[in-house]
Amino acid sequence: MNEAVVQVKNLTHYYGSKLVFEDFNFEIKTGSIFGLLGKNGTGKTTTINILNGFLKQTSGQCLVFGEDSHSLSPQTKARVGFLIEGHIQYSFMNIKQIEKFYSAFYPNWKKEPYWELMSKLEVTDNQKISRMSCGQRSQVALGLLLAQDPDLLILDDYSMGLDAGYRRLFIDYITEYAKAENKTIFITSHIIQDLEELLDDCVIIDYRSVLLTMPIKKFLSVFKLYKCDLIDSLGLIKKDDVIKNVEIFKNKVSFYSFAEMRDFEDHLSKLGIKHNGLNQIEMSLEDAFIGLTGKY
Amino acid sequence: MIKSLLYKEWLKVRWSYIGLVLINLIVAVNICVSLYNDFKFYKANQIYDDVLSWAYIFYIDLMYIPLATGLLLGVVQFFPEINSSRLKLTLHLPMSEAKSLLTMQFYGLSLLLILFIVDAVIVSLLTSSYFPSEVVNSFLIVSLPWFLAGLTAYIFISLIFVEPSWSRRILLAVVGFGFVNVLFINMIAMGLEAIFSKSYFYFILITVLLTPIILLSGYNYKKGIR
Predict the structure, then answer these.
(1) Which residues of B are less than 8 Å from A97 in CB distance?
(2) For A87, which residue in chain B has the nearest alpha carbon?
(3) What span, in angstroms and rounded, lies between the C-alpha atoms of A57 and A25?
């Protein structure tokens, strides 16, 4: 049950001389929903491309169901559903043609979830995909993935171009799909708030490095936001091992830290930072993500 | 799976292909009508003299049609694959990537071959109704490089679209342009003597050997070379 579906070992990638990430490691366990979170340009799509064998990494190893991602067998590819960023599909086909086309490739093809989604769109069977809205195209792509019934679903920024309704619909179906036995999902999105209820584990990446890899619930419980008013100590505040990030607005300051309240207070005292009313604030996943990676 | 892949290719090119078939037929019919009018308005021995002694190529309108057909079919078939990285969808299908790419290319070449054979049959039948078999043979051999140019142009377009590296794309475009040019220059320079040219064999051989290069371009695409 806990065998790794995806194993990324010491992955390093350069575009020319520009380092994207170095010694990137993570594993995705069978049956888990794993999020790859990072700001724009940190290497999320690069990672997905390597994982799907569409980019050869500079060094390191990437295994999908135990096979090198760059030379996946047809049998393994049949077990992997892949959503390309922007919900790209064969737009010259209509919704009937595309279902007919894909069904021949996948032995476990289940057309019901596809047609269920299509019935919600109120389009005719002859509706060409190129003439659909971005939201409708996302439902076509999702329906095809669900019909494929893959063991591993890789979703590259499913939320791109979608309004709140379509995002919610997407997440609802993905949640339902994930409930099925041994289904694994690897997901990236730039809208972090949608993922809070969905993800089991996450890896958060920043430019050139991995910031953390851990279960989402643990991340939200160990990463803390402290707020207080400063008393003439502005010059003393800087990031260190305890203060992971800091935001200052006039005399109000927000600290992000993995330290417990008492340890954090001691740390501020050691630094000579005088403050009033230090208290811990509950954070959403998006708050925690911004707290860890910064706004810029 | 192959059948389904061919279905995708057909959906992609069908309207354009039907348009190309019509254009080819219009040109072929136009050659028929022109020759019919020549025989109607001029003396037959004068036309025979022009064709046999002065190498009058009454089917010259056909010259660049296969080339244009090959180029257009290549664009129509491969541009949608590259546009928005749809080739990733094709290469992610649970079948050998080499088989996918070669099937796509084989399909396009088959469509072109069918069309070119129809062109050749129409003009051959027309020629045989007015001229002796030597003129039919000369038509077939004079027009062979035109049809080869169409197939070669198609192959190079497919390579250029699948190849991800711009420098290699430019190199392929230059080599393709040169190769197609040689096919036409050869005919123009040698005229009907080209009928006996052994170089045709090599042109056909090179055209056949060019097809698997798409696997190299596909490999480069998968490596993410830019």
Answers:
(1) 7, 11
(2) B84
(3) 13
**d(CA B13, nearest CA chain A) in Å:** 10
Q: If 0-12 CB within 10 Å is exposed, 13-18 middle and 19+ buried, where does residue A231 land? A: exposed
Q: How confident is the model at residue A233 (pLDDT cuts 50, 70, 90)?
A: low
Q: B16-55 in b/e burial notation, b at 16+ Cβ within 10 A? A: ebeebbeebeebbeebbeebeebeeeeeeeebeeebeeee
Tell me the nearest-neighbour CA distance from B163 into chain A, angstroms: 13
Distance, in Å, from the CA atom of A65 to the CA atom of A79, rounded to the nearest integer, reads 9
Grade residue A231 by pLDDT with cuts at 50, 70 and 90: confident
pTM: 0.86
CB B95 within 8 A of CB B43: no
The Cα–Cα gap between A51 and A68 comes to 9
DSSP A3-15: -EEEEEEEEEEEE
State the nearest Cα–Cα gap between B154 and chain A, in angstroms: 21
- Are A92 and B12 within 8 A, CB to CB? yes
Q: How confident is the model at residue B198 (pLDDT cuts 50, 70, 90)?
A: low
Which tokens belong to A178?
A: 């994930």
| Inter-chain CB proximity B95 and A56 less than 8 Å | no
Q: pLDDT-derived band of residue B133, with 50, 70 and 90 as boundaries?
A: confident
CB contacts < 8 A (A, B): 71
Rounded CA-CA distance A41/A284 in Å is 23
